[in-house]
Structures are given as structure tokens and as C-alpha cells.
Amino acid sequence: MKKALVIDDTHAIADSICQMLSIMDIQATAVYSPLAALLKVKEYVPDLVFVDIHMPGIDGVEVISYLRREPAFLDVPMVVVTSDDQKETREQALKAGALEVIIKPVTFEALESVINSIQ
Fold first, then answer.
1. Distance between CA atoms of residues 32 and 11, nearest Å
2. What is the C-alpha to C-alpha distance for residues 40 and 37, in angstroms, rounded to an integer?
3. If both were cysteines, with which of 4, 104, 112, 115 could 48 make a disulfide (CB 3.0 to 4.6 Å apart)?
4. Strands (E), the chain
5. Around 34, how many Cα atoms within 13 Å sit in the side-chain half-sphere?
6. Domain of residue 108, CATH code
């Protein structure tokens, strides 16, 4: 079973993504802050990472950039989940190392499509 890490400061969104991933037979763990995520990855290397862009303190682009510097995360697919549909935001996320950007609200179909394209 694949493992995913979901990083979003909005609990309801992170939990919803985890539930949808569970339906797809992916074991998902939610963390609700960038700092919690950076601590979690010291003990847990998932097969996929979903990260929100706009969070307090460290934003999602910085989280991706940090993880991409860690050898264990060089090949881990990372997907940005954001309500910000600006072209610049998408470009920043992809430049930092995200494979895809999903615009909120996240649907099951959007998640499934991204996961199928990664596998």
C-alpha cells in the first residue's frame, strides 16, 4: 500500500484529501502546519506528498524546496493543492519541484487523475 503525506493548515481539507486517498487504497497521514511536516519527514518518507501553498510561516513552495534537498525525497512525487489559480503560483510550484498543481476544492476525480498520471 502506498503512503502519502498531506500538508495543509486547514484541517478539514487535509482530512478530506486523506479520506479520498484512503478510498484509492493509499494510506494518508495529515499534518496541519509546515513545521509539523518538516518534523514528520525526519521519521516518515511517503510515496507521495500533497502540500498547500499558502500556509502561515513557511509556505508550500518552501516546504517542497526543503524536501527536494533531502536525498530521501529526490524522487518522491509532490503535488500542490491550492485555491490560488494564478499562473505565477503554478510556475513557482513546478519550479520548486512539484509535479502537478490541483486547484481547490479538491475533487476525487482530480486526485485520481493526478495519481494515475504519477503511477
1. 6
2. 5
3. 4
4. 2-7, 26-31, 48-52, 78-82, 100-103
5. 16
6. 3.40.50.2300
Q: Tell me: the pLDDT tens digits for 32-64?
A: 999 999 999 999 999 999 999 999 999 999 999
Contact 6, 28 (CB under 8 A): yes
Q: State the maximum Cα–Cα separation within the chain, in Å, rounded to a whole number.
A: 35
How far is C-alpha 119 from the geometric centre of its chain's CA atoms? Answer: 16
Query: CA nearest 92: which of 67, 55, 59, 118?
Result: 59
Residue-wise pLDDT for 73-95, tens only, equals: 999 999 999 999 999 999 999 99
Structural domain span for residue 14: 2-118
pTM: 0.96
Q: Quick check: helix, strand or coil at residue 6?
A: strand
Length of the chain: 119
